[in-house]
Amino acid sequence: MEISALQKERAAYQPKLPKALQGAVKIVEGAPTKSVDNQEEIKKLFPNTYGMPLIEFVPGEKANNKKLNLGVILSGGQAPGGHNVISGLFDTLKKLNPENRLYGFLMGPGGLVDHEYIEITSDFIDQYRNTGGFDMIGSGRTKLEKKDQFEKGLEIIRKLDISAIVIIGGDDSNTNACVLAEYYAAKKYGVQVIGCPKTIDGDLKNDQIETSFGFDTATKTYSELIGNIERDCNSARKYWHFIKLMGRSASHIALECALQTQPNICLISEEIEAKDLTLNDVVENIAKAVAHRAEQGNNFGVVLIPEGLIEFIPAIGRLIQELNDLLAAHGSDYKDLDKDAQRAYILEHLSKENAATFETLPEGVARQLSLDRDPHGNVQVSLIETEKLLSEMVGAKLEKWAKEGKYKGSFAPQHHFFGYEGRCAAPSNFDADYCYALGTSAAQLVANGKTGYMAIIKNTTAKTDEWRAGGVPITMMMNMERRNGEIKPVIRKALVELDGKPFKAFAANRDQWAMNTEYVYPGPIQYWGPAEVCDQPTKTLKLEQE
Predict the structure, then answer these.
(1) In a shared domain, residues 228 and 97
(2) Do the beta carbons of residue 448 and residue 58 sit within 8 Å?
(3) Which end of the chain is more exposed for a tag (fewer CB within 10 A), N or C?
(4) Residues 6+ apart with CB under 8 A from 269
(5) Is the sign of the CA dihedral 52, 57, 63, 65 positive or negative?
(6) Which domain holds residue 342?
(7) CB proximity list for 409: less than 8 A, separation 6 or greater
(8) pLDDT by residue (tens digit) across 401-414?
(9) What is the pLDDT averaged over residues 274-302?
(10) Do 301 and 196 share a structural domain?
């Protein structure tokens, strides 16, 4: 395989580790934990892994060098740094005992169930150090939630003499890790399960997880592209750019990119929901900013839109929730109908209020809302062209205002969706270090006999050697939520906090950014150079840790 000049140089980068992980470790246990909500229900569902203490690693005197074989799974959407998690796992295993082996299950959790795997060796892993993507072993979205899957996975675990499975994934994947850990613990199979927090969306975080890996790199990649568009926008001075950004369940990516680039408008889904705004309210607010800039002779601008915005508009959110339940319960009746019959079927089975909302939507959007769900029962919001919907509605409103003499200007929209551009970018220095430390922590959790934990790294705005490493019981992060029409235990998603410092910093400046042209051009991710360029965490993380 031919590799680029950058990849050759980047392969030589040795990620930095916190002091506690640089040699032998010992465990310091905290107080027993409880779930964030629904404590009795979660405790009943996870009697063997509930209430375990928080764990912190500190320098120790003697390493555990017993023989360990590990299996690793990449689960869900890609995020920069996954390969470095596996590198940290591999290096720590070999450091503990050169006879230890690491097996990678191919194409996600399905590889465990279907017994598809490879052994990860030194020569093999060296090709992937400090690279983006999940192509080392691939990823998938198979959910591990059934007894037959657990037992089928156990067969290959026994065959390969695997002591533990490490699942690298987001909230749903780590929920599956928790379920698997509980099952193997209840059966006394002696198989440990450890999770690692991954998602570019930034919605897997809490008091113990300061950030999920990939968020740093993805937002810097998107911010570079947004800055490029802003520079182009300020050069041509004749286009309004509507940019949709990844983030189905939360607006962390949009918020961070806004802090990095200072666009004219950035929509925050959580705020729109909190203020109970309608789609027309959102459109009118954008149109007012466009009209105001036109008065100054500025017929150009940039609008950032979270991918999941439409789900947060309360009336549409209620519609989507009922659609999710309807399709979960009656999908088999619905899927074989033609397009017109499907629309009629939906209108017939929806409540009066939601049917009225459905009828007001443009036909294309209504159709997109009623398409097949993802494996978790959610609307596939990436298929909904929210950026085009908003620009068309803004254009229609401006045309109406022009006829009324309220608007004099030109409006020429351009559309973008930044998604896959960031998911597999080469990891920033932060993510390269952070992920390597997560992999090292996961290996140490296994070596110290733990199961049902997620590896964590804290104090991440300090220098790397001052980071703190450890583990948090996955049950601590869980609550009960409706999924696929059923109430299930899941890890609680972290939304943008409207009283948090990152949002307040944005809100304090957005009116000025809307009226004026105050773009910032971050440029590309840097790997070599001054620390103020190369080794900075996200603005979100800095503000949160102040």
Answers:
(1) no
(2) no
(3) N
(4) 250, 251, 306, 308, 309, 311, 312, 496
(5) positive
(6) 221-422+499-535
(7) 290, 291, 293, 294, 295, 299, 398
(8) 999 999 999 999 99
(9) 96
(10) no
d(CA 9, CA 529): 14
Q: Domain for residue 352, yes or no? A: yes
Residue 370 lies in a domain: yes
Residues 407, 294 share a domain: yes
pLDDT tens-digit series, residues 442-492: 999 999 999 999 999 999 999 999 999 999 999 999 999 987 678 999 999
Compute the 3-state secondary structure of the chain and give helix, strand, coil in percent, each to the nearest 5. Answer: 45, 15, 35
pLDDT at 365: 79
Question: Hey, what are 95's tokens?
Answer: 């450091």
Residues 291 and 239 reside in one and the same domain: yes
Beta bridge partner(s), residue 487: 482
**Chain segment 404-440, per-residue pLDDT in tens:** 999 999 999 999 999 999 999 999 999 999 999 999 9
Indicate whether 39 belongs to any domain. Answer: no
Per-residue pLDDT of 372-391, as tens digits, reads 666 656 666 667 789 998 99
pTM of the model: 0.93
pLDDT at 450: 98
Residue 488 identity = K
Supply the CATH number for residue 300's domain: 3.40.50.460
Helix (H, G, I), strand (E, B), or coil: what is residue 197?
A: strand
Tens digit of pLDDT for each residue in 314-340? 998 898 888 888 877 776 777 778 888
What is the torsion angle, in degrees rounded to the nearest 10, for the CA atoms of residue 481, residue 483, residue 486 and residue 491?
A: -40
Catalytic residues: 201
405 and 277 in a common domain: yes
Mean pLDDT of 361-377: 72
Which residue matches tokens 């928790």? 178
Tokens 């906090």, residue located: 497
Number of domains in the chain: 2
Are residue 84 and residue 206 in the same domain, yes or no?
yes
Taking phi over 0 as left and psi of -120 to 50 as alpha, with beta for the rest, 70 belongs to beta
Residues 198 and 273 in one domain: no
Mean pLDDT score, 262-288: 96
Mean pLDDT of 220-249: 97
We report the CATH number of the domain holding residue 141 as: 3.40.50.450
Residue 268 lies in a domain: yes
The answer to whether 252 and 202 have CB atoms below 8 angstroms apart is yes
